[in-house]
Amino acid sequence: MVRAMKILGIETSCDETAAAVVDGDRRILSDIVRSQLDDHAPYGGIVPEIAARAHVEAVGPIVDEAMRRAGTGYDDLDAVAATGGPGLIGGVIVGVMTAKAIAAARAIPFLAINHLEGHALTARLTDGLDFPYLLLLVSGGHTQLLVVEGVGRYRRLGTTIDDAVGEAFDKVAKMLGLGYPGGPAVERMATDGETARFKLPRPMKGRAGCDFSFSGLKTAVRQCIENLPPGPVTQQDAADLCAAFQQAVAEVFADRVGNAMDAFGDLHGGAGALVVAGGVAANTRLRAVLGALADDRGFSFVAPPSRLCTDNGAMIAWAGVERLRLGLVDGLDFAPRPRWPLDPDAPRASAGAKA
Ligand code: KG4
Ligand code: ZN
Q: Is 315 in the pocket of ligand 1 (CB under 6 A)?
């Protein structure tokens, strides 16, 4: 029997230091994530300098731990992959330098992975999904609808013209004093809330195309808070606002993804699979709404387990498996890329749209 290839993946582009070993048979042999939440909590958001320093301190022990748990020696590795961007440049440099050092010392290939490609290909690791499929990629830095046509082949259907949806979750949480990261906190609060008490807009709903906008929704939440009676925001107020906000996001998602399903049908002659990825895809309510929409439209629905939706090393290792199979290795002169769009040919949604 041919031994399955084994790849070490390192992720350091945001506020998680993560490493994992994954093999070519889609087995996750280890998957270690160290969150820097406690380091950033006092500031209510990510501080790039603190993130970079924390990655420097954590990356060695985390890689060792991933190798130990996988029961793998460095000599058993076929390649080492690291996030090469997009992301906070200080952190990306730490991961890339670590991976290059291992590759050089062991004389194995180095692969620079686009973080978004890591999220985009996760459904092939977890579910063995075939190309093409429709992807809703929703995280703290990105909100995109893409057709994933192959490794390195992405067609962007839409993106946000202002804030990313995860950023909107984080800002709403901050306004309500719920801490960082906001997504899980807003989701928890929303379970005890009433969606109809506060009237919030559904930005872009009913418009042609697949672009998103969240900054007006965030402002509307701020206005609701300002219009509350004087005094601290009560638990019930916060719960109702979170429920209304999450419901507005759900309706916007359903509308935009509905249009993307039409576009996917035009391109590929019918229904296919809808995949969600990125940290916001961990949200149970949003998953339920998207699952129901997929059912309705004859699409299958693939939502990787939550811990593989948020940032992790396994998705980077797996993207490495896919790229190594195609011989797409990188040189040790690869320069980290703070901005790195998945579809360089995609039209910008409008001024200010994020890559
Ligand atoms: O993919 P990710 O871990 O990091 C980035 O690449 O950005 O996504 C982090 C984002 C944060 O904005 C966080 O608030 C959001 O995902 N998030 C959630 C949930 N869990 C994480 N948003 C809504 N509901 C959740 N349960
Ligand atoms: Zn991410």
A: no
pTM of the model: 0.93
201 and 294 fall within a common domain:
yes
Are residues 148 and 272 part of one domain?
Answer: yes
Q: Which domain holds residue 19?
A: 6-121+308-325
The tens digit of pLDDT for each residue in 183-193 reads 999 999 999 99
pLDDT at 214: 98
Q: What residues pair up with 113 in beta bridges, in sequence order?
A: 83
| Phi, psi at 17, each rounded to 5° | -100, 120
* Residue of 167, 172, 280, 339 to mutate, ligand 1, most atoms within 8 A of C-beta: 280
87 lines ligand 1 (CB under 6 A): no
Tokens read off for 235: 């638990």
Largest CA distance in the chain: 71
User: How far apart are alpha carbons 96 and 52 in whole angstroms?
Assistant: 12
pLDDT in tens, 300-312: 999 999 999 999 9
Which residues make beta-bridge pairs with 294?
Answer: none
Q: How many domains does the chain have?
A: 2
Cβ(144) – ligand 1 distance below 6 Å? no
Q: Ligand 2 centroid vs 265 CA: distance in angstroms?
A: 27
In a domain, 319, yes or no: yes
C-alpha dist (Å) from residue 171 to 182, 220, 222, 248, 282:
7, 12, 10, 15, 18
User: Which residues have a Cβ under 8 Å from the Cβ of 261 and sit 6 or more positions away?
Assistant: 134, 271, 274, 293, 297, 299
The answer to whether 112 and 30 are in contact (CB under 8 A) is: no
pLDDT digits (tens, 9 = 90+) for 27-54: 999 999 998 878 887 777 788 888 889 9
Q: How far is ligand 2, taken at its centre, from the CA of residue 199, in Å?
A: 31
- What is the Å distance from ligand 2's center to 197 Cα? 33
Quick check: is 126 in a domain?
A: no
Helix (H, G, I), strand (E, B) or coil at 212: strand
Q: Are residues 144 and 103 in the same domain?
A: no
